[in-house]
Amino acid sequence: MASTKRRRRRRSECRPLVAAVAVFALLLLLLPAPGAEAAAAHYGVQRHLDRINKPAVRSIQSADGDMIDCVPSHKQRALDHPLLANHTIQTPPPLSLMPASSLVYRQQSSWRAWQTWHHAGHCPRGTVAVRRTTAADVLRAGSLTRFGRKKKQRRPLPPDVATGNGHEHAIAYTASEVYGARATISVWAPAIEEANGFSLSQLWILSGSFNGSDLNSIEAGWQVSPELYGDSRPRLFTYWTSDAYEATGCYNALCPGFVQTSSRIAIGASISPVSSVGGPQYDMTLLVWKDPKLGNWWLSYGDGAGGGLVGYWPAELFTHLSDHATMVEWGGEVVDTRSGGTHTATQMGSGRFAAEGFGRAAYFRNLETVDADNSLAAVPLDAIQTLAEDAGCYDVRKAYDDGRGGWGAHFYYGGPGHNPESCP
């Protein structure tokens, strides 16, 4: 009798322990296995890379570390866009349909910058040259949704290009009905202070509301962005948005949209050589214009021998830009997060102020716009306005060359960012 009581007492004492063990076992079943979250994240990144990096017929290892994939043009990422499901890739228009210019260009001690990977090989005809995106590229962005996209920018009124989110500019702009624009841009390698900072020099083709969510923008230029590319080299880039940077668009070919036609020019690839203070000056010419027949917006990189059409933004991507642009902007942009409580020391352009002039300050020269007759016209100096949010950090100074140097309307711009004299 006594032993029976003892057995019952032991069983009642064990019940809480058994219950605790059962709960613990259930939790183990519900909790992810060690490394599962990392594996899931890796799986998500790999799936994203599989969407971006299309199968190549040839891959070229560049001396700068890039891998350039030669992708069949009909399999490129752009055609994954739902608006381009039935899109037929446009044949590059002949030279006779490209905007003609009356300007006479002279080098004036500047030389052409090109792309580093050209020293290692070339892509065959029928393919497009695409910089391969790596897992490290994606992981630096911190999230798949942020990768390859500018942060949303508030644009209250023109020409306040992008106030908010720490974006600062030194730009020139003109407001009129235009169908494209061209400029020659000096190429530099500005120092970037923060890992998530960038410095770029570009042109903007704009239409739509500056204080709403329907702004359309086409952008092209060079940029230094350690977060996007993993290094501090200047690289050719493109960007587009049809909703004021809300949900549409991206850099380069990191989302569907921009249709590439070139096997010689890789968007996102590094540019070399670059300018140096007091040394040789290297520049590149960009032209964006609207095809008067099909309405697509074409990008040309370089001029004369070696230059060529890169590709186009299909008209289907846009609302306002399906007709024409209402503003063109040229200039520099940086990000100032003020992470340490002071202004960033990220440089714009050469890192020197505009007053230092040729050989020391960065420049845009031969500013032109495309008119309704598909002709390039030099922009009169009095039609150009300038803007710098904080001229003590970055500034801009416009000028006009009367023809002896062949620069037409041009401007110097840039600066060092943080400095004790004018940018605390």
Structural class comes to alpha+beta
Helix content: 10-25%
| Low-confidence regions | 10-14, 16-34, 154-163
Kindly estimate the percentage of residues that lie in beta strands according to DSSP: 25-35%
Instruction: Tell me the number of helical segments per DSSP (H or I, 4 or more residues long).
Output: 4
Largest sheet: 11 strands, mixed
InterPro entries: Glutamic_endopeptidase, Neprosin, Neprosin_propep
Protein name: Neprosin PEP catalytic domain-containing protein
Keywords: Signal
Signal peptide: 1-38
Fold and architecture overview:
It holds the Pfam family Neprosin_AP. Residues 1-38 form the signal peptide. This is Neprosin PEP catalytic domain-containing protein. Residues 161-424 form the Neprosin PEP catalytic domain. This protein is 13% helix and 31% strand. The chain is built from four helices and 22 strands. Strands 3, 4, 8, 12, 14, 15, 16, 18, 19, 21 and 22 form an eleven-stranded mixed sheet that branches. A six-stranded antiparallel sheet has the order 11-10-9-17-7-20, with no helix packed on it.
What attributes does this structure have?
single chain, 424 residues, 22 strands
Write a short abstract of this structure.
It comes from Zizania palustris (Northern wild rice). Helix content is 13%, strand content 31%.
Secondary-structure blueprint of this entry?
Layout: H1 2-30, H2 36-52, E1 58-61, E2 67-72, E3 100-101, E4 110-112, E5 114-115, E6 127-131, H3 135-141, E7 167-178, E8 180-186, E9 199-207, E10 216-224, H4 226-229, E11 235-241, E12 259-260, E13 271-272, E14 281-290, E15 297-301, E16 308-313, E17 325-335, E18 362-370, E19 375-378, E20 385-388, E21 395-400, E22 409-414
